[in-house]
Write a structure and sequence with these properties.
Elements (H helix, E strand, L loop, with lengths): L25 E4 L5 E6 L4 E7 L10 E3 L3 H7 L4
Antiparallel strand pairs: 1-4, 2-3
């Protein structure tokens, strides 16, 4: 029997709605942080992508609704 790979689950494969009928989101960059993170599907981790200069912070949480990630890049949601 083949052993399953251990590590973080792929957040792009999460359902957009949980069992409680709530929208699930993945926050890649938290509000108030200087660090920009992005999910690396090959390594199955969130990796540091960029650091803002000292004194600058991200003003909002940045992320995505899991299955919508690729579709949103192709066509905007109206």
């Amino acid at each position: 029997m083949a052993k399953k790979k251990r590590g973080m689950a792929d957040p792009t494969r999460l359902a957009p709605i949980d069992n409680g009928n709530k929208t699930q989101v993945v926050i890649e960059t938290p509000k108030g942080s200087r660090n920009k993170y992005a999910f690396d599907p090959e390594q199955r981790v969130f990796a540091l992508k960029k650091v803002l200069p000292e004194g600058m912070l991200f003003p909002h949480d940045f992320g995505f609704i899991p299955p919508q990630r690729l579709r949103m890049a192709i066509r905007p949601m109206c």
